[in-house]
């Protein structure tokens, strides 16, 4: 009447449940580990090989230096613009001066041609000396005698000449006395020709009527050229 003594093993039914302890999935562990390692590696790379992060003071100094560089750049650009403008103005002046120089050179060439013609056609010294006194102009006023004297040498005898010019005035004083007055001498120097122009003082009350012009070489008493010219009234 008693059955078998063996107990059958418990088998849960489809409608039953058991309390089983579950662990963290392996794939989640691997994922979290990868994230941690990746973040750590990124931080390591940034710290070891990436740019150094600036402090607040360094950042402010960098901004200050950048502003200074920008200001220097603007100043240099302004100076460059000014130099460019000055260069343009200088170039314009040079062009103007070149044009003026060409104009002056043309005038000089014309004057040189006129002088050459003048020297060839100037009247000779009546005495035929070289140097000779070719032309004279006097003007007397207020006890002063203005003179303009042209002295020339012949082309085939032209050589450096230096000497002295003396003027001896023949005239009358206001009291009626006639006299000859030697006026202050002055130097002369020429090669082909020279113009002597100036003023000499005349004694007070004396009116010159004619003037004797004498030219002597330096260190010589011999008269090289002489003319007598009337003074216009």
Description of the molecule:
The protein has helices spanning 26-49, 56-121; strands spanning 132-141, 144-152, 161-173, 178-182, 186-190, 193-201, 206-217, 223-230. The protein has 233 residues and is an alpha+beta fold. Among the domains are: 59-121; 132-230, Immunoglobulin-like. Strands 3, 4, 5, 7 and 8 form a 5-stranded antiparallel beta sheet that branches. A hairpin with a 2-residue loop joins strand 1 (132-141) and strand 2 (144-152). The chain is rod-shaped. The mean pLDDT is 84.
List the helices and strands and how they pair.
Elements: H1 26-49, H2 56-121, E1 132-141, E2 144-152, E3 161-173, E4 178-182, E5 186-190, E6 193-201, E7 206-217, E8 223-230
Antiparallel strand pairs: 1-2, 2-6, 3-4, 3-5, 3-7, 7-8
Helix content: 25-40%
Structural class: alpha+beta
Reported CATH architecture of the domain at 132-230: Sandwich
What would you give as the CATH superfamily of the domain at 132-230?
Immunoglobulins
Count of alpha/pi helices:
2
CATH fold annotation of the domain at 132-230: Immunoglobulin-like
Shape category:
rod-shaped
